[in-house]
Amino acid sequence: MEKINFASKFEQFDELWSPRVIAQMNNYEFKLVKIKDEFVWHRHDDTDEVFVVLKGVINIEFEDRTVELNRGEMLVVPKGEKHKPFAREEAQILLVEPKGVTNTGDVKSHLTAKNSQWI
Amino acid sequence: MEKINFASKFEQFDELWSPRVIAQMNNYEFKLVKIKDEFVWHRHDDTDEVFVVLKGVINIEFEDRTVELNRGEMLVVPKGEKHKPFAREEAQILLVEPKGVTNTGDVKSHLTAKNSQWI
Question: Is the ipTM of this complex over 0.85?
Fold first, then answer.
């Protein structure tokens, strides 16, 4: 049971769109991600997904609209909802979702990351 | 599906030690809490509990040690672990835990808050 400092954890990796697990609560994981440019359209059929912006500005595109999230803002993407995150400048985010969720959901892509990369 | 701004939500209440629910992800709730001074010793027998500090400094006392958490830091308090949060100055935190968890866990106190107070 150690405390986790987000800034220190972000210093430990540079790879974009590649979630790093920093904590587990019950069967849920807390993951840090650095993002820039476009991700891929995808959905998670079995779970909601929480995005919290820790640094910068991100956008999450849905089929009918785009939500801009700034530092200090969060969004719950509902289960099954198709979405595509993007960021004009590099941004840092916290994801909360059940253990074992793959970043690209129902899609296989060159951006599909390995799960359970703990730092 | 609306985005949530932590600062705006914190403007909507002043009561200390009284969690306000701002989001639900699957069967988990995200709660904002303003805290100052001492809470009560308690434990949650059925769940881990996540503390994220959004403003100020908090301490979480355990039977054998005390963890200080600053803004940008988080801690997972393990299921069943007796703890007592406190803050010398008013601080703002985010809690993540399953829906329906009572703030004082196994203990009834004047600080026991009502659940599911959405803002």
Answer: yes
